[in-house]
Structure formats: C-alpha cells, structure tokens
C-alpha cells in the first residue's frame, strides 16, 4: 500500500517533487546532492511545512486533512539537530513521556532501546555531556520507544564512524521490520543505502 504519495508538489523557490511514492512497511532511503530538497521532503511528510502547489496524500487522504499533532505522533521526524533536556538520559525519557501523558518505560526497557541505538551509557548520564552523535542516538531511542507508524531520520549517521553507522542502521531496520514501522532515512552514504534500503529515492 502507498503510505505517502506526492504529485507535482512545489515549494516556491526551494524545491519541487514531480511524483514520489513511499510504501508502507518498507525501508526507504532518500539520496541526492546537497540542497536538492531531501530534508524539505521529510518536513512535508509530517506536515511541518505545507506546499504552495500539488498534492500530498497520507494513507490515501490529503495530508492537510489530518490533525497535525496526531499525525506527528504517527510520523516522527528526527532532524539533524535534536532537542534533549539538560538532564539525565532517564529523565529525558520521563519528560518526553510526560508530554504524552504516558508512563515512561522501566529502566530495563530504556536500556534495551539505548542498546538498540548503540548507546552503552548509564541512564544517569547527563545529556549535556554527550557527543552530537550520542545525543542523536539517545533521541532515536526515545522516538523508537514510542512505536511510531513511520520513523523519518535526517542523516542519522552523519556524526558517526563507519562501524557505529552500520550497527545503528542494522538494528534500526531490524526493529522497524519486526514492529511494522516504515523507516525513511535521508543519507549521503550510498553504500549504506544500497545495503539496507528496500527502495532508494534518488533525487539527483
Ligand atoms: N527555510 C528556508 N528558506 C529558504 N530556503 C530554504 C529554507 N530551507 C531550505 N531552503 C533551501 O531549499 C533547498 C533545499 O533544502 P534542503 O534542506 O531540503 O536540502 P537537502 O537536500 O536536505 O540538503 P543537505 O543534503 O545539504 O542537507 C536548499 O537550496 C536550501 O538552501
């Protein structure tokens, strides 16, 4: 089933997309040179921005018809600059769950999500002390724990060395397949895309 479809979409002076289809339950990687509109495409898919022209459908209905707060719970976008509170890893989980009025996972569960994202730090570590790549992966762990329908990652491996990149994408893909999460990732790493994508959208 088509999860997203775009037809003749244009954002004045920024980017245009003739026809793009993203299928449900698959891993789609978006590649293309700098400035071609990859990050903008992700923002369109969770309605962070709206097009000036054209049609974007989510599950066969215009995305503009969805309640954006609910849509963004289904379709999580992780941009390159993630936001974490100046607090411990555990308390970041607690705060994000608090916003959703949900009970946070147990320490054991949090540790599992961190492990999945190649983070082997104590839950008491303050997020201010983390590197850029670690912060991004802690945020991925929080987002994954919410079990979204769609997880969109903007250059998830740009701050990581090759083996950590490989481990992260391997684990993420496995988790998403198992939990029927549609994974969409923007990357400049063509090898990683070839290895893990079910579909590659090349915007060159
Ligand atoms: N808010 C904005 N206002 C004006 N122009 C913008 C805005 N956001 C992005 N652009 C421009 O739109 C184009 C597409 O940007 P986008 O960030 O989607 O590209 P990208 O393919 O993700 O690039 P990169 O690979 O460098 O991250 C670029 O030319 C960028 O300079």
TrEMBL record:
Residues 1-204 form the ABC transporter domain. Keywords: ATP-binding, Hydrolase, Nucleotide-binding, Transport. One of its GO terms (molecular function) is ATP binding. The keyword ATP-binding applies. It is an enzyme of class 3 (hydrolase). The keyword Protein transport does not apply. Its EC number is 3.6.3.-. CDD domains: ABCC_MRP_Like. It comes from Anaerotignum neopropionicum. This is Putative iron export ATP-binding protein FetA. It comes from the Bacteria.
């Amino acid at each position: 089933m088509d999860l997203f479809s775009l037809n003749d979409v244009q954002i004045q002076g920024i980017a245009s997309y003739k026809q793009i289809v993203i299928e449900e339950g698959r891993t789609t990687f978006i590649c293309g040179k700098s400035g071609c509109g990859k990050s903008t495409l992700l923002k369109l898919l969770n309605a962070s921005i709206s097009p000036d022209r054209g049609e974007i459908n989510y599950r066969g209905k215009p995305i503009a018809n969805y309640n954006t707060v609910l849509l963004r719970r289904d379709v999580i976008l992780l941009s390159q600059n993630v936001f974490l509170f100046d607090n411990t890893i555990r308390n970041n989980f607690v705060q994000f769950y608090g916003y959703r009025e949900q009970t946070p996972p147990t320490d054991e569960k949090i540790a599992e999500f961190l492990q999945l994202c190649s983070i082997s730090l104590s839950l008491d570590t303050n997020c201010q002390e983390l590197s850029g790549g670690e912060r991004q992966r802690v945020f991925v762990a929080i987002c994954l724990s919410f079990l979204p329908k769609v997880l969109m990652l903007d250059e998830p491996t740009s701050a990581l060395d090759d083996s950590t990149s490989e481990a992260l994408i391997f684990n993420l893909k496995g988790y998403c397949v198992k939990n029927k999460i549609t994974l969409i990732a923007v990357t400049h790493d063509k090898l990683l895309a070839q290895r893990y994508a079910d579909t590659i959208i090349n915007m060159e």
